Structures are given as C-alpha cells and as structure tokens.
Amino acid sequence: MSIQILHYEFLGPIPLSDWGPPMEKIIYILFAKVKNGFNPIYVDQIEKTDQSDFFIKNEKFKCWIEKAGNEQSLHLAIHLMEDSEENDRKRIVDRIISHYKPRCNIE
Fold this sequence. Notes:
Strand 1 and strand 2 form a beta hairpin. 25% of the residues lie in helices and 41% in strands. The chain has a single domain, classed as 3-Layer(aba) Sandwich (GIY-YIG endonuclease). The longest helix is centred in the last third of the chain and has 15 residues, at 86-100. The protein has 3 helices and 5 strands; from the N terminus they run E-E-E-E-H-E-H-H.
C-alpha cells in the first residue's frame, strides 16, 4: 500500500504498532486514522534509528495520541531517500508542513 503526499510516494500507512526498526534516511508521516482515510498529524525526517521505542519516546508522542484519539488510530508512512543528505530531507519535510500544516508540527 502507498500514499501520495505532494508528488512523493510514501509506503503505508500502516498501524504504528506494526512498525519495527531499523529506519535509515527517510521522511516519516504520522497519521490519525479517520472514517474516510488518514489525516497527517506530524512529519519529520531521520538519518537512522535502530531503537524499537523510537516513536514512543518522541517528545511529540503525547500530541500524536491527543490528535489521533488513541494509539490504535496512529498510522505511519515512510518515504525512502537512501542517498539523501539531511538538508534534502528537511526541505521536503518543510514543504509538507507548509502544505498540510500537521497539528503536532504546528503546536
């Protein structure tokens, strides 16, 4: 399954509970599952993580739960950028934030 965000293809969304490390050089979006689909609530990028509790320990986790209603409604989509630099990923993250205004990035 995939989802188009701006003109970028993201893998997912999948339930956040189904995610497992590692992740390397990606942009990720957290969504709240709603009746008609998914609402983006947070977007960011990461160079690399092997931590299985990466999302739970994120400082925005509480905001995600608030906006999604519960942990079961949290879904994750990722855009792989294997040969990218942090600035490349950050530029795309900023464009997505500017366009969609995910509530946990804005607050």
